[in-house]
Amino acid sequence: MIESLKRAWFSLEDRLFDLRYGIDTRRSAGDRAAVPTEAATVGHATSYQAVWTRNLRILIRAARRHAELRVFVDVGAGKGKACIYASQHFAEVIGVEYSAGMLREAKANCIRSGRHNITLLLADACEYDLPEQPCLVFLFNPFDAVVLSQFTSRNLERLYAHGSIIAYANDMQRDTLAQLGFQCLFRDPARNISLWCVAP
User: Fold this and answer.
1) How many domains does the chain have?
2) What is the pLDDT of residue 153?
3) Which domain holds residue 105?
4) Main-chain dihedrals φ then ψ at residue 95, nearest 5 degrees
5) Model pTM score
6) How many C-beta neighbours within 10 Å does residue 172 have?
7) Cα 125–153–192 angle (5° rounding)?
């Protein structure tokens, strides 16, 4: 009963978030047909889901207990919800999305939200280089272990050099991060959310 009430409240909170900004992030998205077939992520991506506002709040608060982070990077930005939420807490926000159709929806939502510190990029995670700054890199389980390995391996030195943290929601591939040399800083098993950094 209590768990059902919690879920109802979180659902209401997410609905109110969309209403506040006049955006649509809750409805499922169509097929990512606009993705170039040569993109390395094709076949390894997961379907779109909007992250719970509460999970974002918990992850950002927990991350700030570990490091002073300047940039929020959402890899697999979808419709831009995480970017819009994070824009209230970070001076610079970057959303990376490999689907042109999804990116158009994200741009429309960001414009309607009135937030001006968000940059949205059309890019494949396998070919994306993180900024040379301390980042909170948000992943809402956007892809499988194959692409997660490629993305983190490509950016391993930058993640380590700047003390960046990965905020992982629906953290199904956390064993992959551990195998790649990442250390878990925080995990909420009830919500399947966690924070990771490159182990010293």
Assistant:
1) 1
2) 98
3) 2-198
4) -115, 130
5) 0.88
6) 13
7) 70
Residue 97: which H helix or E strand, with range?
strand 92-97
Two structure tokens written together for 30: 């169509």
Per residue in 106-151, pLDDT tens? 999 999 999 999 999 999 999 999 999 999 999 999 988 999 999 9
Q: Domain holding 92: CATH number?
A: 3.40.50.150
Residue with tokens 């042109």: 100
Q: Give whole-number Cα distances, 88 to 48, 111, 113, 115, 149, in Å.
A: 23, 15, 11, 8, 30
CA dist 104 → 43, 98, 192 (Å)? 21, 11, 29
Helix (H, G, I), strand (E, B) or coil at 30: coil
pLDDT at 44 > cutoff 50 = no
| 3-state SS, residue 100 | helix
Q: Is the pLDDT of residue 11 over 70?
A: yes
Q: Would you call 136 helix, strand, or coil by DSSP? A: strand
CA torsion sign, 119 to 125 to 131 to 136?
positive
* 66-92 burial code (b ≥16 CB/10 A, e <16): ebebebbbbbbbbbbbbbbbbbeebeb
